[in-house]
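Subject: complex prediction, re-run

Hi both,

The earlier run crashed halfway through, so I resubmitted it with identical inputs.
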Amino acid sequence: MALLGEVVRFTFLSLSITSIYVLVAIGLSIVFGSLKFVNMAHGALYLLGAYVGLFIAYSNTRVGGSLESFAPLGLEWGFGAALILTPIVVAILGVIMERLMAKPLYDRDMLDQLLITFGVLIGLQEVIGITTGRTGYTYTRPEWAQGPIPLPGIGTASRWRIYVIFATIALLAIILMFYKYTDYGLAVRAGTEDAEMTQMLGIRITRPYLLIFAIGAAYAGLAGILGGSTFNVGPQIGIEIIIPALVIVIMGGVGSIRGTIIAALMAGVTFSAVTEFWPAMATASIYILAIVVLTLKPQGIVPSVVLEE
Amino acid sequence: MSTDLDFGDEPLLSWDRWDRMKNSELFIFFAAGAFAVLFPWLFIRAPITGDIFTGYGSLAKTILIWSIFAVGFNLLLGETGLLSFGHAAFYGVAGYGAGWVAIYSYGHPLLMIVVGVIMGAVFSMLVAPILLRLHTVYFAIVSLAIAQTLFWLAREPFNQWTGGENGLTRMEVKPLFGDVTPADQLPDVLGTLMGSWMYLLIAVFFVITIVAVHRVKKSPYGLIFKAIRENETRSAFIGMDVWRYKFASFVMSATIAGLAGALLTVDKAFVGIRRLWWSASGDVVVMTVIGGLRTLFGPVAGAIVYQWFGGVVDGYPQIGQYWLLILAAVFTGIVWWYPDGIWGLFSQIGDFLRSLGGDNE
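This time it finished cleanly. Structure:
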């Protein structure tokens, strides 16, 4: 029984870690696969999500940086409101990012895209650091998102982890259905195949692109809250999340949503397993996994899009 | 080289002569040497800057070390078109290698440098087979992943050897020769110009690096790097062994990164774990791009700007905290609108002045 309880606990733990990774990586993966746009600034959306959520949910007394004199700062609407509002706010920020940064770069070299979005990511991290301080913040989850749920006959599971896992599954279903079954999703997929031809047939592909970018941003923003209450919150988390997220996307194979989900699962399980007996190597274990996978399969687990040489 | 400087009966000063001369190896050698000799004096002690920089003697060394790093990095990014986000790995490995020599063997500066450089180069040869099969983005991210893995490995599992978060200390750097240690002041006018023997040591390696990179760039071998950057498939079609040249470029670049890492260890007698952190890789990318990709001296200019911001502007009241934000904005703007960077700006201004002078070439 104890073993079964352990197995259940570990499953929920690894799935909740996977959820955070997959929520960040999915938007990155779709945009990378369909628009051939590699967006390191996607990490900034996660960062913004964490901070927007923080200032919606709580009244933060220990604000540093140039906003210090305004402390305590925040709307204090509660954790639930943050969970709902943050994705909306970050989606809007994502739209702004798409229009100002991503759209002009779609036709540029991937090298330029990598460099520019890296610069934007560092810049946004600095803005957050300067305005709100370099020290970390903590999320305190309310009672309804804490504590165990009894599972009859097995033991207990963390209530919060169960919520996170089921919310993630629902969100993944939404984005997959959008991608597969709506006209907008069809336009995005058509644009992926041949953008010029699609436009010639009279289909405006810029709006579907914008929408898919915004959804990816919303998911990253939500992941910011979920990750913020699991890992830590500070101005550097943008790059700290984008490295594993990009690693997951390329490990799964660019352009394949299935590949991204599989890779995120592998990363989540590896991370949780290594955390059990060797916490110091937890983050590195994902990278080692990716290095091994990409050495065996340089195109990723589910190779679908061949990037032009 | 004698042909470069054989001018016949041309006038002593002419643009033709300048154009021919400025790309000769001898000129590059003297230009790099003159820069290395005069730079700390101009930067720290010259009357034009007043006495605000007096305390920045070590910054001149740091700048020169990062210049070496960035010049080597540019060989990979600018010439061959491969973006590595993990060059900190070679920089760090060589740094630790140099440190281990001093702790477990004998800390002669040159021995430390040689062993450090070899360790960096060997490590790059080990990871090259993994990396060079990968496409642009894959290459950048996996190189970053490798460097980050090294960081986490050095932080805890191997902290017995690396000192973990506290860094590698308790190394003793022995005298260069006789009883002259690297920290000693140079005699007479050299001391006024360059400060310590350590600076001279770094400057010598700086000049060697510049000349070596220049020679590679101008050689047929280096032209193949460019061909690969422009079109890898076509290079393969005309019968070039693309992998071999990418490998060579990668290892050369990593070796130079290792040289910078080893020099820093000799200078500081300390190796911190932050050398393996992604930000070291990010810094060298920013420096190289700001200075100007594909140029020889651009990365040096970039290193000066970056270190000046990080070491000097950082301390200013009010704007000090914005230094990295300003640099990130400048970096983004340069990639976006003006890929030639600072050095490109210099040459454009030079060309403009020249056209004013009536030379319409």
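The longest helix of chain A spans residues 2-35.

- K.
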